[in-house]
Structure formats: structure tokens, C-alpha cells
Amino acid sequence: MPRIAKITSNKSDEAYQRDRTDNLKQANEQLGLLSLKPPTHLKSYARTLWKVLTPALNKTGYVTTIDSTTVEALCINYQMLREAY
Q1: C-alpha distances in angstroms, 85 versus 15, 79, 80, 81?
Q2: Model's pTM, two decimal places?
């Protein structure tokens, strides 16, 4: 099993790891950020979680529009958990 690439900008880590992180951020800039407005079909807890998560995820620079379905699935599952509880 291959080793997972380390994503870091810490000065104490290896230079090649920091370079890889910078390259990833530059590539992601071309893809665009997640929309701050939640999809219309999200309701209640899912909608609220989307509004809280997306600004934080956009700030990291690692999450892009390609990841929107994953974030959406997380929000839906969170809502289902809350409703079930």
C-alpha cells in the first residue's frame, strides 16, 4: 500500500512536502470554491451545516467545487443523524 502524501505548509517539514502542498493549492485555485449558498433541496440541519462548513472549507484552499457532492452527502447524513436522535 502506498504512503499517503503529507499536505503541510509547516516550515519544520520537508521542502518537497511544502512544495507539493503549494502545487496542490495552485491547481485547486483554477477549479473554484464551494458555493456559500446551500443547494435548494437541503433543508433544516443540512442547510445550516452547509452554511457553517463551506466558508471554513473554502478558506483551507484544498476543497473545490468538485468536492461539493461529498460535502452535500455529509450534510444530508448529519441531518438524518439529528432527526434519528
Answers
A1: 46, 10, 8, 6
A2: 0.74
